[in-house]
Amino acid sequence: MKNKTTKKISKTYLIKKNNHISSNMKLQFYYHMQLMRKFEETVFKLYRQGKVVGGAYSSEGNEATAIGSAFALEKNDYLFPMHRDIGAHFVKGQSVKNLMLNYLGKSQSPARGHDGTGHYADMKLKIFGNISPLGAMIPLANGVALASKMKKEKSVVLNYIGDGGSSIGDFHEALVMASVMKLPLILIIENNQYAYSTHISKQFIVEKLSDRAIGYGINGITIDGTDVELVYKTTKDAVENARKGNGPTLIESVTMRMQGHAIHDDASYVPKKLMDYWKKKDPIVVYEKKLFAEKILSDKKKNEILSEIQRQLDEASDVALNSPFPVWEDANEKVFAE
Amino acid sequence: MKTLTYIEAISEALWEEMERDKNVFLLGEDIGKYGGAFKVTKGFHEHFGEERVIDTVLAENAIIGAATGAAMMGMRPIAEIQFADFVSNGFNQLVNNSAKIFWRCNIPVPMVVRLPSGGGIHGGPYHSINPEAWFFHIPGLKLVAPSTPYDAKGLLKSAIRDNNPILYFESKFLYRRIKGEVPTNDYTVEIGKADIKRNGNDISIITYGTGVHWSLEAAKILEEENIDVEVLDLRSLIPIDKEAIFSSVKKTGKILIVHEDTLTGGIGGEIAALISDNCFEFLDAPIKRIASPDTPIPFAPTLEDHFLPNTKKVLSALKSLAKY
Ligand SMILES: Cc1ncc(C[n+]2csc(CCOP(=O)(O)OP(=O)(O)O)c2C)c(N)n1
Ligand SMILES: [Mg+2]
């Protein structure tokens, strides 16, 4: 059952400006999408060798959404990435080495072994890594947006949530608050068709998740999340709008989770036809073709990029694997600030 | 008798109760075709159908609220929270609705919330907690925490048949690590009754969940030193079996309380107060506690190993009590 009344409203909220994208920028998009995928492939490899504990998550299929949106931020803006946005950390200035250390839970990692994967926060880089309880970051992002507004920083906050996570009460409360307070919040719903094993047909019955924006009286738009330039432009518009004081935007970025929920999950519940459809829309493959056609990318350049990524990953893995684990006495007892 | 793992015992209890009573149904995230994050309900969807094995939206407060409402209607819902940590999202429904409806309105709320709890699986601060103390304080909720397949099955059956909201704390760590004998025919374990898992005369350990296993191991090691340790498994936290606690205290006079949850505000404190109130003159030593330290549960294996109680920690506390 679809809700017909909301059908045509949501897409015209944002006025698309023709944000020019330079060749250099395009190469940056490409580089970061590749880095994101290769980073996670490396994590999976290390996980299978027993060197990463806990779990390992793949963002395959979400690269364009994570990278395109993160590039829309300025240095002074705040990033609240989720578990499918690892590449956004790099765009915002985090090093491959630091993130690898964090995945391995080492003492020199940003989270000092207290937490793993992308779970850490860095006030200097203005990155607030994800936490597990879904939805709980959105009210927090509001608080950062509020304080930033009070401090007249002219910054915006970019946060993500999944199609599943969008069902959590926090989502509603936070958007109600952000809308009336006109907070500079951009919330991207990464609709990747599944929440763990649960298909979106069991998660919502609105036609587009951006239709929910209407209920909050804020801007909402649904886009193809596999198109990195479209994601970039759309987010950039929302960012500029928020910076002008016009309040939050809800963007639904439609993608596919190309692997299981995490490394243990073979995703056998996903119909092959659906996978095949999205396989053709692989954000990296499609973009690579485009850049070749535009003569921005060549075989030589591509190889240079890939070997540079490999070099960084090898170096980061090497450092991280040989780095010590934290010891209790150094780290853990400190629960309170001085 | 047959041998089951802890997780199989949980699945069997659910299955048999669903066969027995058509008012029993399951709801939770990914529990349908997928069978749940830990596969407790694997095969249920096919057998009982999607009306009784409901894959819900991702919203714990909605899940627990719906279970509570359905229970008021005479159904017997069993909600699965994917990881006990996320029950925080359902806190409002649990403490304001599930817990108070019978007292306020005289309407029974026969529901169970299953909470896969605990550390030791490298889950980090959001997939490892033991939240029983959050609810220990709330009048109107019953809390059970089995340590063996036998208790897991028997307590879950009792919980499902009970006319009150019950939080069922199941140990993820024990799921596939322990096996035990379980009767082939229908049986229950009474809620509110502790179980002496090992008889002893010198020191009593009062514990539950994973603590039972560390305690039994430590007790076994101390056999060689001729120290005779009793292990009392509470099994139910609310109602708590005061009689069993007091009689063990009266027997040994030395008490060690062990739980995986963090120390301050943990259940051990209440047990110590009960003992001090009721059996002060029987004590031969200060009451000792082994629990996790007062920090969130860390991710790095080195830190987690240090954080969690274990057999060694229990052993050294027992030795110091023995000397007292
Ligand atoms: C509040 C809460 N409930 C349950 C979970 C367990 N869990 C982790 S990820 C996940 C699925 C998330 O799906 P979605 O929000 O669509 O994000 P995706 O993983 O698809 O990117 C679930 C159920 C959680 N982390 N937090
Ligand atoms: Mg999803």
Would you mind describing this structure in some detail?
The complex is a heterodimer of chains A (338) and B (324). Helices cover 42% and strands 11% of the residues of chain A. Chain A has 338 residues and is of the alpha/beta class. Chain A has one domain (21-321): Thiamin diphosphate (ThDP)-binding fold, Pyr/PP domains (Rossmann fold, 3-Layer(aba) Sandwich), CATH 3.40.50.970. In chain A, a hairpin with a 2-residue loop joins strand 6 and strand 7 (198-199). Chain A is globular. With 324 residues, chain B is α/β, with parallel strands linked by helices. Chain B has 2 domains: 2-182, Rossmann fold (3-Layer(aba) Sandwich); 195-323, Rossmann fold, CATH 3.40.50. Chain B has helices spanning 6-20, 44-48, 60-72, 91-98, 101-105, 132-136, 149-161, 210-223, 242-252, 267-279, 301-307, 311-323, and strands spanning 2-5, 24-28, 53-55, 76-80, 111-117, 142-144, 165-171, 179-182, 195-198, 203-207, 229-233, 236-238, 255-262, 288-292. In chain B, helix 1 runs parallel beside helix 7 (149-161), helix 3 packs parallel to helix 4 (91-98) and helix 9 (242-252) packs across helix 10. Chain B is globular, with a radius of gyration of 19 Å. Classes of the chains: A alpha/beta (338), B alpha/beta (324). The A-B interface holds A 53-54, 105-107, 111, 113-116, 119, 131-135, 164-165, 167-170, 195-198, 202-204, 269, 325-328, 331-333, 335 and B 29-30, 32-34, 37, 55, 57-62, 83, 85-86, 88-89, 122-127, 293-296, 298-303, 306-307. Thiamine diphosphate sits between chains A (84, 132-134, 162-165, 168, 190, 192, 194-196, 257, 261) and B (29, 58, 60, 82, 86, 89).
